Amino acid sequence: MSLLLRGFMVARMLRAVTDCGAADAVPSDGAVAIEVLAGICGVQPRPLLRILRCLAAQDIFSVGPDGTVGHTGRSRLLRQDAADGLHYAARYWTVPGIWGAWGALDAALAGAVPHEAAWGKPRYAFMREHPEEARLFDALMANFPDRRHAAIAAAYDFSGARLIADIGGGMGATLREILGRHPAPTGVVMDREDVVRAISPDALLDGRIRVQGGSFFEAVPAGADIYLLVCVLQNWTDQDCLRILRTIRASTPPGTRLLIGETVLEPDPTRGRLDDYIMDVQMMAIFGEARIRTRDEFAELLNQSGFALERILPTEAAGSVVESLPR
């Protein structure tokens, strides 16, 4: 319990060493002197050593009595080239915007939004003014350690699709996984203008993916036979979710499918996953009434917006695929 009370300190140390590139600079199967490591990272050796010793006490890096630094299984996860790694997670979860919102968490108990209490503006407005946080968020979503994009692509049969529209699709990671498995469909990623501008041309699969900037509160690409919402609704209040879903419903003739890729919260915490409840509070800290939703909450939102929940498919990751059809 004592360590849990100081867990924020560990998270902040992990960000510090990941931001400066220490995990990438330590040889994967060797060791490096602290002075050399600090020089590569452009930081002072003594403070870096003190942080690394604390992490090494938790089996994150190894630090010898002479100050040589090596990797452990845990610290290798912080490398950018680690399969299913935690590099972007370590850097994102304690960025200033998130850090400040959690510091104001008590505001939620009084009915306010912690992020707005800390920064005076909603999260997306903050990210527009701090593009470094926005791009880091995009990188985290594209490289989430549970491989959720591949898990969604594997859980559902997309082989009969012609055009797949990924709404709020970020950098297009889910769509690339799907199209990589199925040669017939093409896709369109829709997100904010600043997001789609950051997508590399190399990520568009030789023209099989196109991008469209805009607001999913106003309009979505027409003509798709499958619409995807991956980790989108969890960021919005019920009223905002209804606006998003109704905008999509206006573009979905009979036979079109809406697939929501999100965690479905287990109401009983003795049966659910700790990560899911942490993420639910994260949504509260950042967005207020936004949340991780239960099956019944998804069914109600879909019903009110003109869809009918068909089934919920589990995936190999934390999330599920919530399939619905227009009513």
Automatic annotation (TrEMBL):
Source domain of life: Bacteria
Residues annotated as domain O-methyltransferase C-terminal: 113-308
Keywords: Methyltransferase, S-adenosyl-L-methionine, Transferase
Gene Ontology terms: biological process: methylation
InterPro entries in alphabetical order: COMT-like (IPR016461), COMT_C (IPR001077), SAM-dependent_MTases_sf (IPR029063), WH-like_DNA-bd_sf (IPR036388), WH_DNA-bd_sf (IPR036390)
PROSITE patterns noted in UniProt: SAM_OMT_II
Transmembrane segments: none
GO molecular function: O-methyltransferase activity
Keyword rRNA-binding attached: no
Pfam families membership: Methyltransf_2 (PF00891)
Protein name, UniProt field: Methyltransferase
Origin species: Dankookia rubra
Organism lineage: Bacteria, Pseudomonadati, Pseudomonadota, Alphaproteobacteria, Acetobacterales
